[in-house]
Design goal:
The structure is a single chain. With 319 residues, this protein is an alpha/beta fold. The protein folds into 3 domains: 115 residues, Periplasmic binding protein-like II (D-Maltodextrin-Binding Protein, domain 2); 85 residues, Periplasmic binding protein-like II (D-Maltodextrin-Binding Protein, domain 2, 3-Layer(aba) Sandwich); 85 residues, Double Stranded RNA Binding Domain (2-Layer Sandwich), CATH 3.30.160. Helices cover 33% and strands 24% of the residues. The longest helix has 18 residues. Bound molecules: ligand PBG. The site of ligand PBG has 10 residues, from strand 8 and helix 7.
Length: 319
């Protein structure tokens, strides 16, 4: 007798289908059950032009969560950076697998790197976090380029460069890798230049809180260090009272002495989109062994950043 298939709710976009497909395979392996993809059309897919008004990428998450709550699907996969920082009681993030490359990358014409871009170059990004840090970099390195707000999926955004409308676009490495376009990358941005979004490169596998059997099975795909890192990053975001559209970057990583992991470092940045002001700070602590300890790391950093004026820099809204 074959076991009943698990239903994975997914958006239809290429990126969502790619990451859902990869997770489906992994879940099938740990559970020994077939996994079937159930496509869910979100309001955000139907109405892209309204995305700004209705509040960014959260709409994509909401439709998947409704399908979970209605019992139409057994689990869903989200890009962690698109997940709101508040967790609904009836749902749990049962697994956060090992994170992909968290960096942002440049896709530019003529294989150019960021520092090769000529004066007046036009760089596409709809993210205030990327704008703030790119413009701050330009100011401190005597460069002069213009950030141009764009939106759309990965292929659309790269299309601006291949069609010659823009000199470069900035995207997440993880997204490009997942849709098989990593060859298009012309420059990997150091996280010292552009700190990624909290949770960037990580996935969250979510199911209903009452599904103890599935929670236990999915837990096998969880990577505790990735979970600790993204929990600290998202705790910073929450403590700054910022949302997924805020100009906030955060990255937690491990500091090792040889092979021995010593500490977790959490770096954070917030700035104005013109790059004239950035608040950058980092903190280190013992590698968090509990959810509470990871949350505390993020809150500590937020306290320091707020003391340096971070709150005044978060008024801007965009995607
Ligand atoms: N904001 C959209 C989004 N949400 C998740 C990813 C892919 C990277 C990831 O999973 O963190 C992207 C594309 C991008 O920012 O270039």
């Amino acid at each position: 007798m074959t076991e009943k298939a698990l239903r994975l709710g997914t958006r239809r976009s290429k990126l969502a289908m790619a990451q859902s497909g990869q997770v489906a395979e992994a879940v099938s392996q740990v559970t020994g059950r077939p996994v079937e993809l159930v496509e869910i059309t979100t309001y955000g897919d139907v109405s892209r032009e309204h995305l700004a008004q209705i509040g960014g990428t959260g709409v994509f998450v909401a439709a998947l969560r409704e399908a979970l709550a209605r019992g139409e699907v057994d689990f869903a996969v989200h890009s962690l950076k698109d997940l709101p920082t508040t967790q609904p009681d009836e749902l749990v993030v049962a697994a956060i697998p090992v994170r992909e490359d968290p960096r942002d990358v440049v896709v530019a014409r003529d294989a150019l790197k960021l520092t090769d871009l000529p004066r007046g170059a036009r760089i596409g990004t709809g993210s205030p976090r990327r704008m703030a840090q790119l413009n701050a970099y330009a100011r401190s390195h005597g460069m002069d380029f213009e950030t141009v707000p764009i939106r759309g999926n990965v292929d659309t955004r790269i299309g601006y460069v291949t069609k010659g409308d823009l000199d470069a676009v900035v995207l997440a490495a993880a997204g490009l890798n997942r849709v098989g376009r990593s060859e298009d990358v012309t420059d990997f941005l150091s996280v010292d230049t552009v700190l990624p979004a909290p949770g960037q490169g990580a996935l969250a596998i979510e199911c209903t809180a009452d599904n103890a059997a599935l929670i236990a099975e999915l837990a096998e795909l969880d990577d505790p260090l990735t979970r600790a890192a993204v929990t600290a990053e998202r705790s910073l975001l929450a403590a700054l009272e910022a949302g997924c559209s805020a100009p906030v970057g955060a990255l937690a990583d491990l500091l090792a002495d040889g092979q021995i992991v010593k500490e977790m470092r959490l770096r954070g940045v917030v700035g104005t989109t013109d790059g004239s002001t950035l608040v950058q700070l980092s903190t280190t602590g013992p590698v968090p062994e509990t959810h509470e300890a990871a949350m505390a790391l993020g809150r500590d950093l937020a306290t320091g950043m707020l003391a340096q004026g971070a709150a005044g820099l978060m008024g801007e809204r965009a995607q």
